[in-house]
Write a structure and sequence with these properties.
With 502 residues, the chain is mostly helical. Helices cover 76% and strands 0% of the residues. The chain has one domain. The protein is globular.
Protein backbone atom coordinates (compact mmCIF):
# COMPACT_ATOMS: atom_id res chain seq x y z
CA UNK A 1 0.00 0.00 0.00
CA UNK A 2 1.35 3.45 -0.93
CA UNK A 3 2.79 5.50 1.90
CA UNK A 4 0.48 8.47 1.27
CA UNK A 5 -2.60 6.28 1.61
CA UNK A 6 -1.29 4.65 4.79
CA UNK A 7 -0.52 8.00 6.43
CA UNK A 8 -3.90 9.39 5.42
CA UNK A 9 -5.90 6.43 6.81
CA UNK A 10 -6.78 8.18 10.12
CA UNK A 11 -8.13 11.19 8.23
CA UNK A 12 -10.06 8.96 5.83
CA UNK A 13 -11.57 6.94 8.70
CA UNK A 14 -12.59 10.09 10.60
CA UNK A 15 -14.23 11.46 7.43
CA UNK A 16 -16.14 8.23 6.78
CA UNK A 17 -17.44 8.00 10.34
CA UNK A 18 -18.47 11.68 10.25
CA UNK A 19 -20.91 10.58 7.53
CA UNK A 20 -21.90 7.21 8.99
CA UNK A 21 -22.71 8.33 12.55
CA UNK A 22 -25.34 11.02 11.68
CA UNK A 23 -27.00 8.59 9.24
CA UNK A 24 -27.00 5.84 11.87
CA UNK A 25 -28.39 8.35 14.35
CA UNK A 26 -31.36 8.95 12.06
CA UNK A 27 -32.25 5.27 11.70
CA UNK A 28 -31.05 3.59 14.89
CA UNK A 29 -32.85 4.39 18.14
CA UNK A 30 -30.43 2.58 20.42
CA UNK A 31 -28.09 5.15 21.99
CA UNK A 32 -25.52 2.48 22.82
CA UNK A 33 -24.98 1.71 19.12
CA UNK A 34 -24.24 5.35 18.30
CA UNK A 35 -21.95 5.55 21.32
CA UNK A 36 -20.17 2.40 20.13
CA UNK A 37 -19.68 3.75 16.60
CA UNK A 38 -18.24 7.00 17.95
CA UNK A 39 -15.91 5.13 20.29
CA UNK A 40 -14.82 2.84 17.45
CA UNK A 41 -13.98 5.90 15.34
CA UNK A 42 -11.65 7.26 18.02
CA UNK A 43 -10.14 3.84 18.74
CA UNK A 44 -9.48 3.16 15.04
CA UNK A 45 -7.59 6.43 14.66
CA UNK A 46 -5.71 5.72 17.89
CA UNK A 47 -4.64 2.21 16.85
CA UNK A 48 -3.54 3.23 13.35
CA UNK A 49 -1.45 6.07 14.76
CA UNK A 50 0.16 3.67 17.24
CA UNK A 51 1.10 1.43 14.30
CA UNK A 52 2.51 4.42 12.40
CA UNK A 53 4.63 5.35 15.44
CA UNK A 54 6.39 2.00 15.12
CA UNK A 55 8.14 3.09 11.91
CA UNK A 56 10.57 6.03 12.32
CA UNK A 57 10.28 6.67 8.57
CA UNK A 58 6.88 8.22 9.29
CA UNK A 59 8.37 10.83 11.63
CA UNK A 60 9.04 13.33 8.84
CA UNK A 61 6.36 15.20 6.94
CA UNK A 62 5.86 13.58 3.55
CA UNK A 63 7.32 15.80 0.78
CA UNK A 64 4.43 17.59 -0.82
CA UNK A 65 5.89 17.26 -4.31
CA UNK A 66 6.33 13.49 -4.00
CA UNK A 67 5.65 11.61 -7.22
CA UNK A 68 5.32 8.25 -5.43
CA UNK A 69 1.59 8.09 -5.97
CA UNK A 70 -0.69 8.78 -8.90
CA UNK A 71 -3.79 8.03 -6.84
CA UNK A 72 -3.49 11.30 -4.92
CA UNK A 73 -4.58 14.39 -6.76
CA UNK A 74 -1.90 17.06 -7.01
CA UNK A 75 -4.08 19.59 -5.19
CA UNK A 76 -4.53 17.18 -2.28
CA UNK A 77 -0.77 16.59 -2.17
CA UNK A 78 -0.16 20.31 -1.90
CA UNK A 79 -2.99 21.09 0.51
CA UNK A 80 -2.45 18.43 3.14
CA UNK A 81 0.56 17.32 5.17
CA UNK A 82 1.02 13.68 6.17
CA UNK A 83 3.35 12.07 8.69
CA UNK A 84 5.48 13.90 11.25
CA UNK A 85 3.65 15.82 13.95
CA UNK A 86 0.27 15.09 12.29
CA UNK A 87 0.44 11.50 13.57
CA UNK A 88 1.07 12.59 17.15
CA UNK A 89 -1.75 15.14 17.31
CA UNK A 90 -4.23 12.74 15.70
CA UNK A 91 -3.30 10.39 18.52
CA UNK A 92 -3.83 13.17 21.07
CA UNK A 93 -7.25 14.14 19.67
CA UNK A 94 -8.34 10.50 19.75
CA UNK A 95 -7.31 10.13 23.41
CA UNK A 96 -9.26 13.29 24.30
CA UNK A 97 -12.29 11.93 22.47
CA UNK A 98 -12.13 8.56 24.23
CA UNK A 99 -11.73 10.09 27.69
CA UNK A 100 -14.64 12.43 27.03
CA UNK A 101 -16.86 9.65 25.69
CA UNK A 102 -16.39 7.51 28.80
CA UNK A 103 -17.75 10.38 30.90
CA UNK A 104 -20.60 11.33 28.56
CA UNK A 105 -23.45 8.75 28.91
CA UNK A 106 -23.73 9.00 32.71
CA UNK A 107 -23.46 12.80 32.60
CA UNK A 108 -26.21 13.15 29.98
CA UNK A 109 -28.40 10.68 31.89
CA UNK A 110 -27.90 12.57 35.15
CA UNK A 111 -29.07 15.77 33.44
CA UNK A 112 -32.03 14.03 31.70
CA UNK A 113 -30.74 14.94 28.26
CA UNK A 114 -29.73 11.70 26.57
CA UNK A 115 -29.79 12.81 22.94
CA UNK A 116 -27.80 10.86 20.35
CA UNK A 117 -26.95 14.04 18.42
CA UNK A 118 -24.15 14.63 20.93
CA UNK A 119 -22.06 11.91 19.31
CA UNK A 120 -22.54 13.23 15.76
CA UNK A 121 -21.49 16.71 16.85
CA UNK A 122 -18.37 15.57 18.67
CA UNK A 123 -17.42 13.45 15.64
CA UNK A 124 -17.60 16.42 13.28
CA UNK A 125 -15.62 18.55 15.69
CA UNK A 126 -12.97 15.81 15.82
CA UNK A 127 -12.83 15.78 12.01
CA UNK A 128 -12.31 19.55 11.96
CA UNK A 129 -9.35 19.15 14.30
CA UNK A 130 -7.92 16.52 11.97
CA UNK A 131 -8.07 18.89 8.99
CA UNK A 132 -6.42 21.68 10.98
CA UNK A 133 -3.70 19.21 11.91
CA UNK A 134 -3.01 18.21 8.28
CA UNK A 135 -3.30 21.60 6.64
CA UNK A 136 -0.81 23.15 4.27
CA UNK A 137 -3.43 25.40 2.69
CA UNK A 138 -5.07 28.44 4.27
CA UNK A 139 -8.52 27.49 2.95
CA UNK A 140 -8.20 23.99 4.43
CA UNK A 141 -7.19 25.68 7.69
CA UNK A 142 -10.30 27.86 7.57
CA UNK A 143 -12.58 24.91 6.80
CA UNK A 144 -11.00 22.87 9.59
CA UNK A 145 -11.43 25.67 12.12
CA UNK A 146 -15.09 26.10 11.19
CA UNK A 147 -15.78 22.37 11.10
CA UNK A 148 -14.39 22.17 14.62
CA UNK A 149 -16.09 25.31 15.92
CA UNK A 150 -19.67 25.02 14.64
CA UNK A 151 -20.36 21.75 16.52
CA UNK A 152 -18.86 23.39 19.61
CA UNK A 153 -21.37 26.25 19.28
CA UNK A 154 -24.19 23.69 19.33
CA UNK A 155 -22.65 21.51 22.03
CA UNK A 156 -22.22 24.54 24.32
CA UNK A 157 -25.99 25.01 24.26
CA UNK A 158 -26.79 21.30 24.26
CA UNK A 159 -28.78 21.61 27.49
CA UNK A 160 -31.37 23.86 25.88
CA UNK A 161 -33.53 23.88 29.02
CA UNK A 162 -30.63 25.43 30.98
CA UNK A 163 -30.32 29.22 30.68
CA UNK A 164 -26.57 29.12 31.35
CA UNK A 165 -26.02 26.64 28.55
CA UNK A 166 -28.08 28.71 26.12
CA UNK A 167 -26.18 31.85 27.11
CA UNK A 168 -22.85 30.06 26.59
CA UNK A 169 -23.87 28.92 23.12
CA UNK A 170 -25.10 32.37 22.07
CA UNK A 171 -21.99 34.17 23.30
CA UNK A 172 -19.69 31.62 21.71
CA UNK A 173 -21.54 31.78 18.38
CA UNK A 174 -21.62 35.58 18.18
CA UNK A 175 -18.02 36.13 19.23
CA UNK A 176 -16.86 33.13 17.20
CA UNK A 177 -18.48 34.62 14.12
CA UNK A 178 -16.47 37.81 14.59
CA UNK A 179 -13.30 35.73 14.96
CA UNK A 180 -14.19 33.88 11.76
CA UNK A 181 -14.43 37.22 9.97
CA UNK A 182 -10.94 38.18 11.15
CA UNK A 183 -9.58 34.81 10.02
CA UNK A 184 -11.07 34.88 6.52
CA UNK A 185 -10.07 38.51 5.93
CA UNK A 186 -6.56 37.66 7.09
CA UNK A 187 -6.40 34.79 4.62
CA UNK A 188 -7.60 37.12 1.85
CA UNK A 189 -4.87 39.68 2.65
CA UNK A 190 -2.23 36.97 2.83
CA UNK A 191 -3.33 35.70 -0.57
CA UNK A 192 -3.21 39.25 -1.89
CA UNK A 193 0.33 39.62 -0.55
CA UNK A 194 1.72 36.34 -1.90
CA UNK A 195 -0.67 35.10 -4.60
CA UNK A 196 -0.82 31.68 -2.92
CA UNK A 197 -2.84 29.78 -0.34
CA UNK A 198 -0.13 27.18 0.22
CA UNK A 199 1.89 27.72 3.37
CA UNK A 200 5.12 26.29 1.97
CA UNK A 201 4.89 28.62 -1.05
CA UNK A 202 4.15 31.59 1.22
CA UNK A 203 7.24 30.71 3.26
CA UNK A 204 9.48 30.78 0.19
CA UNK A 205 8.09 34.11 -0.95
CA UNK A 206 8.63 35.68 2.47
CA UNK A 207 12.26 34.51 2.44
CA UNK A 208 12.83 36.20 -0.92
CA UNK A 209 10.93 39.34 0.12
CA UNK A 210 9.16 39.59 -3.25
CA UNK A 211 5.69 40.25 -1.82
CA UNK A 212 3.39 43.05 -0.75
CA UNK A 213 4.75 43.80 2.73
CA UNK A 214 1.77 45.84 3.94
CA UNK A 215 -0.76 43.19 2.95
CA UNK A 216 1.33 40.51 4.63
CA UNK A 217 1.48 42.38 7.94
CA UNK A 218 -2.27 43.04 7.85
CA UNK A 219 -3.04 39.45 6.84
CA UNK A 220 -0.93 37.88 9.56
CA UNK A 221 -2.34 40.25 12.19
CA UNK A 222 -5.92 39.32 11.28
CA UNK A 223 -5.15 35.60 11.18
CA UNK A 224 -3.48 35.89 14.57
CA UNK A 225 -6.60 37.52 16.02
CA UNK A 226 -8.80 34.72 14.65
CA UNK A 227 -6.56 31.97 16.05
CA UNK A 228 -5.99 33.81 19.34
CA UNK A 229 -9.75 33.73 19.88
CA UNK A 230 -9.82 29.96 19.39
CA UNK A 231 -6.92 29.55 21.81
CA UNK A 232 -8.51 32.04 24.29
CA UNK A 233 -5.49 34.31 24.67
CA UNK A 234 -5.62 37.90 25.95
CA UNK A 235 -7.39 40.13 24.92
CA UNK A 236 -9.60 37.66 23.03
CA UNK A 237 -10.30 35.44 26.03
CA UNK A 238 -13.49 36.94 27.44
CA UNK A 239 -15.73 34.31 25.89
CA UNK A 240 -13.93 31.39 27.55
CA UNK A 241 -15.06 31.77 31.20
CA UNK A 242 -18.73 32.19 30.29
CA UNK A 243 -18.72 29.41 27.68
CA UNK A 244 -16.70 26.95 29.74
CA UNK A 245 -18.93 27.58 32.76
CA UNK A 246 -22.27 27.40 30.94
CA UNK A 247 -21.52 24.52 28.57
CA UNK A 248 -22.13 20.92 29.66
CA UNK A 249 -19.05 19.96 31.66
CA UNK A 250 -18.04 17.05 29.39
CA UNK A 251 -18.18 19.45 26.44
CA UNK A 252 -15.98 21.90 28.32
CA UNK A 253 -13.50 19.06 28.98
CA UNK A 254 -13.16 18.24 25.28
CA UNK A 255 -13.31 21.82 24.06
CA UNK A 256 -10.70 23.16 26.48
CA UNK A 257 -8.18 20.41 25.69
CA UNK A 258 -8.50 19.01 22.18
CA UNK A 259 -9.92 22.30 20.87
CA UNK A 260 -7.07 24.28 22.39
CA UNK A 261 -4.53 21.79 21.01
CA UNK A 262 -5.97 22.23 17.50
CA UNK A 263 -5.77 26.02 17.83
CA UNK A 264 -2.10 25.83 18.74
CA UNK A 265 -1.36 23.45 15.87
CA UNK A 266 -2.78 26.16 13.63
CA UNK A 267 -0.48 28.68 15.35
CA UNK A 268 2.51 26.43 14.75
CA UNK A 269 1.87 25.78 11.04
CA UNK A 270 1.16 29.46 10.33
CA UNK A 271 4.10 30.88 12.27
CA UNK A 272 6.53 28.24 10.94
CA UNK A 273 5.54 29.44 7.47
CA UNK A 274 5.90 33.16 8.25
CA UNK A 275 8.86 33.14 10.65
CA UNK A 276 12.53 32.53 9.95
CA UNK A 277 13.92 29.93 12.43
CA UNK A 278 16.22 31.50 15.00
CA UNK A 279 19.31 29.67 13.81
CA UNK A 280 18.91 31.22 10.35
CA UNK A 281 17.56 34.63 11.26
CA UNK A 282 20.91 36.41 10.81
CA UNK A 283 21.37 34.81 7.40
CA UNK A 284 17.87 35.40 6.06
CA UNK A 285 17.52 35.95 2.35
CA UNK A 286 15.68 39.23 2.89
CA UNK A 287 15.60 41.89 5.61
CA UNK A 288 11.83 41.74 5.47
CA UNK A 289 11.79 38.08 6.54
CA UNK A 290 13.94 38.99 9.55
CA UNK A 291 11.81 42.01 10.43
CA UNK A 292 8.43 40.26 10.35
CA UNK A 293 9.85 37.47 12.52
CA UNK A 294 11.35 39.84 15.10
CA UNK A 295 8.39 42.23 15.28
CA UNK A 296 5.80 39.45 15.46
CA UNK A 297 7.67 37.60 18.19
CA UNK A 298 7.85 40.75 20.32
CA UNK A 299 4.11 41.33 20.03
CA UNK A 300 3.26 37.68 20.74
CA UNK A 301 5.61 37.73 23.76
CA UNK A 302 3.70 40.68 25.23
CA UNK A 303 0.38 38.92 24.59
CA UNK A 304 1.76 35.75 26.21
CA UNK A 305 2.81 37.66 29.34
CA UNK A 306 -0.54 39.45 29.65
CA UNK A 307 -2.45 36.21 29.06
CA UNK A 308 -0.61 34.44 31.88
CA UNK A 309 -1.06 37.32 34.32
CA UNK A 310 -4.69 38.13 33.49
CA UNK A 311 -5.72 34.46 33.53
CA UNK A 312 -4.12 33.65 36.87
CA UNK A 313 -5.01 36.90 38.65
CA UNK A 314 -8.65 36.65 37.58
CA UNK A 315 -8.80 32.99 38.61
CA UNK A 316 -7.86 34.09 42.13
CA UNK A 317 -11.23 35.79 42.53
CA UNK A 318 -13.43 32.91 41.38
CA UNK A 319 -15.69 30.90 43.69
CA UNK A 320 -17.03 28.60 40.95
CA UNK A 321 -14.77 25.63 40.15
CA UNK A 322 -15.58 25.56 36.43
CA UNK A 323 -15.01 29.29 36.14
CA UNK A 324 -11.74 29.02 38.03
CA UNK A 325 -10.57 26.27 35.68
CA UNK A 326 -11.72 28.40 32.72
CA UNK A 327 -9.53 31.35 33.71
CA UNK A 328 -6.79 28.85 34.48
CA UNK A 329 -7.15 27.62 30.89
CA UNK A 330 -6.60 31.18 29.68
CA UNK A 331 -3.38 31.37 31.70
CA UNK A 332 -2.15 28.08 30.24
CA UNK A 333 -2.69 29.45 26.74
CA UNK A 334 -0.20 32.13 27.73
CA UNK A 335 2.35 29.52 28.79
CA UNK A 336 1.94 27.65 25.51
CA UNK A 337 2.42 30.86 23.51
CA UNK A 338 5.96 30.96 24.91
CA UNK A 339 6.82 28.11 22.56
CA UNK A 340 5.58 30.14 19.59
CA UNK A 341 7.65 33.13 20.75
CA UNK A 342 10.75 30.95 21.14
CA UNK A 343 10.50 29.94 17.47
CA UNK A 344 12.91 27.04 17.94
CA UNK A 345 12.96 23.26 18.14
CA UNK A 346 12.70 23.29 21.94
CA UNK A 347 9.65 25.54 21.72
CA UNK A 348 7.72 23.33 19.29
CA UNK A 349 8.64 20.22 21.25
CA UNK A 350 7.70 22.00 24.50
CA UNK A 351 4.27 22.91 23.08
CA UNK A 352 3.73 19.28 22.10
CA UNK A 353 4.69 18.01 25.56
CA UNK A 354 2.68 20.68 27.36
CA UNK A 355 -0.47 20.06 25.30
CA UNK A 356 -0.15 16.35 26.14
CA UNK A 357 0.21 16.98 29.87
CA UNK A 358 -2.47 19.67 29.81
CA UNK A 359 -4.91 17.30 28.12
CA UNK A 360 -4.66 14.75 30.94
CA UNK A 361 -4.74 17.19 33.87
CA UNK A 362 -7.49 19.43 32.46
CA UNK A 363 -9.78 16.72 31.13
CA UNK A 364 -9.34 14.71 34.33
CA UNK A 365 -10.23 17.73 36.50
CA UNK A 366 -13.35 18.52 34.47
CA UNK A 367 -14.55 14.91 34.53
CA UNK A 368 -14.29 14.94 38.33
CA UNK A 369 -16.32 18.17 38.31
CA UNK A 370 -18.87 16.45 36.04
CA UNK A 371 -19.13 13.52 38.49
CA UNK A 372 -19.66 15.74 41.52
CA UNK A 373 -21.92 18.22 39.77
CA UNK A 374 -25.63 17.72 40.23
CA UNK A 375 -28.49 18.49 37.87
CA UNK A 376 -28.90 22.18 36.94
CA UNK A 377 -25.25 22.96 37.70
CA UNK A 378 -25.47 22.45 41.45
CA UNK A 379 -22.38 21.73 43.59
CA UNK A 380 -20.01 23.83 41.49
CA UNK A 381 -18.77 26.20 44.18
CA UNK A 382 -15.38 25.79 45.80
CA UNK A 383 -17.10 25.40 49.19
CA UNK A 384 -18.97 22.36 47.83
CA UNK A 385 -15.62 20.54 47.77
CA UNK A 386 -15.07 20.98 51.51
CA UNK A 387 -14.36 17.65 53.14
CA UNK A 388 -14.38 15.73 49.85
CA UNK A 389 -11.38 13.69 51.02
CA UNK A 390 -13.55 12.07 53.68
CA UNK A 391 -16.55 11.15 51.54
CA UNK A 392 -14.68 10.43 48.27
CA UNK A 393 -10.98 9.94 49.08
CA UNK A 394 -9.97 8.58 45.67
CA UNK A 395 -11.62 11.42 43.77
CA UNK A 396 -10.04 13.96 46.10
CA UNK A 397 -6.62 12.37 45.60
CA UNK A 398 -7.02 12.42 41.80
CA UNK A 399 -8.15 16.06 41.86
CA UNK A 400 -5.15 16.94 44.05
CA UNK A 401 -2.82 15.33 41.50
CA UNK A 402 -4.40 17.36 38.70
CA UNK A 403 -4.10 20.57 40.71
CA UNK A 404 -0.45 19.91 41.60
CA UNK A 405 0.27 19.25 37.93
CA UNK A 406 -1.53 22.41 36.81
CA UNK A 407 0.62 24.38 39.25
CA UNK A 408 3.70 22.77 37.74
CA UNK A 409 5.06 20.82 40.71
CA UNK A 410 7.24 17.71 40.32
CA UNK A 411 6.93 14.78 39.83
CA UNK A 412 3.89 15.49 37.65
CA UNK A 413 3.67 16.14 33.92
CA UNK A 414 2.84 19.82 34.30
CA UNK A 415 6.28 20.50 35.82
CA UNK A 416 8.21 19.32 32.78
CA UNK A 417 5.70 20.98 30.45
CA UNK A 418 6.51 24.35 31.97
CA UNK A 419 10.21 23.51 32.20
CA UNK A 420 10.54 22.91 28.46
CA UNK A 421 8.53 26.02 27.56
CA UNK A 422 10.53 28.19 29.96
CA UNK A 423 13.77 26.72 28.58
CA UNK A 424 12.68 27.41 25.00
CA UNK A 425 11.91 31.07 25.83
CA UNK A 426 15.33 31.51 27.46
CA UNK A 427 17.03 29.92 24.45
CA UNK A 428 15.05 32.25 22.21
CA UNK A 429 16.32 35.30 24.11
CA UNK A 430 13.20 36.00 26.18
CA UNK A 431 14.42 35.78 29.76
CA UNK A 432 12.02 38.54 30.83
CA UNK A 433 9.06 36.48 29.57
CA UNK A 434 10.26 33.46 31.56
CA UNK A 435 10.46 35.58 34.73
CA UNK A 436 6.87 36.73 34.22
CA UNK A 437 5.81 33.10 33.62
CA UNK A 438 7.41 32.06 36.93
CA UNK A 439 5.61 34.89 38.74
CA UNK A 440 2.31 33.88 37.11
CA UNK A 441 2.87 30.28 38.21
CA UNK A 442 3.46 31.42 41.78
CA UNK A 443 0.17 33.33 41.68
CA UNK A 444 -1.63 30.19 40.49
CA UNK A 445 -0.50 28.28 43.58
CA UNK A 446 -3.08 30.16 45.64
CA UNK A 447 -6.21 28.95 43.86
CA UNK A 448 -4.98 25.48 42.88
CA UNK A 449 -3.72 24.64 46.34
CA UNK A 450 -6.77 26.43 47.75
CA UNK A 451 -9.02 23.78 46.24
CA UNK A 452 -6.85 21.06 47.80
CA UNK A 453 -7.10 22.79 51.18
CA UNK A 454 -10.89 22.81 50.82
CA UNK A 455 -10.93 19.08 50.10
CA UNK A 456 -8.58 18.03 52.89
CA UNK A 457 -8.62 20.65 55.64
CA UNK A 458 -12.10 22.19 55.69
CA UNK A 459 -15.27 20.71 57.10
CA UNK A 460 -18.36 20.54 54.94
CA UNK A 461 -21.60 22.00 56.24
CA UNK A 462 -24.54 19.73 55.57
CA UNK A 463 -24.61 16.30 53.94
CA UNK A 464 -21.41 14.91 52.47
CA UNK A 465 -21.00 14.73 48.71
CA UNK A 466 -21.42 11.20 47.40
CA UNK A 467 -20.75 10.18 43.82
CA UNK A 468 -22.31 7.33 41.85
CA UNK A 469 -19.42 5.43 40.28
CA UNK A 470 -19.54 4.77 36.52
CA UNK A 471 -17.16 4.37 33.58
CA UNK A 472 -16.06 7.99 34.06
CA UNK A 473 -13.66 6.53 36.62
CA UNK A 474 -11.75 4.94 33.72
CA UNK A 475 -11.10 8.39 32.22
CA UNK A 476 -9.92 9.74 35.57
CA UNK A 477 -7.63 6.74 36.13
CA UNK A 478 -6.10 7.06 32.65
CA UNK A 479 -5.56 10.78 33.22
CA UNK A 480 -3.80 10.16 36.54
CA UNK A 481 -1.56 7.52 34.97
CA UNK A 482 -0.82 9.86 32.06
CA UNK A 483 0.21 12.70 34.37
CA UNK A 484 2.46 10.43 36.43
CA UNK A 485 4.03 8.84 33.35
CA UNK A 486 4.82 12.24 31.82
CA UNK A 487 6.28 13.40 35.12
CA UNK A 488 8.49 10.35 35.63
CA UNK A 489 9.43 9.63 31.99
CA UNK A 490 9.24 13.00 30.20
CA UNK A 491 12.03 12.12 27.77
CA UNK A 492 9.80 9.66 25.87
CA UNK A 493 7.46 12.39 24.64
CA UNK A 494 10.00 15.20 24.33
CA UNK A 495 12.37 13.05 22.25
CA UNK A 496 9.51 11.92 20.04
CA UNK A 497 8.33 15.51 19.61
CA UNK A 498 11.85 16.57 18.64
CA UNK A 499 11.87 13.93 15.91
CA UNK A 500 8.41 14.88 14.66
CA UNK A 501 9.25 18.58 14.25
CA UNK A 502 12.59 18.15 12.45
Amino acid sequence: MEIQLILSLPLIIASIFAIIIPVADAFIKNKSVIFGLTLFNFLAVLVIDLILFANPANFSLLPLNSQASDSFNTIVKQSLNFGGYTIYFEFLFAIAGILTLFATPSFLKKNNFELKEFYSLITFSFLGMMYINHTNNLLILFLGVELMSIPFYVLSGFFRNNINSIEASLKYFILGSFATGFLIYGIAFLYGATGSMYLNVINQQILTGQINHTFLYIGFSLIFVGLAFKASTFPFHQWAPDVYTGAPTVVTAFMSTAGKAAAFIAFIVVTKSLFVPNQYINNAISDFATNITSHSREIIAIISALTMLVGNITALMQTNVKRMLAFSSVAHAGYILMGIVANNQTGWSGITFYLTAYLFMQIGAFIIVALIEKENSELLNLSDYNGLSKSEPLLAAAMAIFMFSLVGLPPFGGFFGKYYLFLSAIQGGYLWLTIIAVIASLISIYFYIGLIINMYFKEREGASVTVTKNISIISIAISVVGILFLGIFPSYVINLASELFK
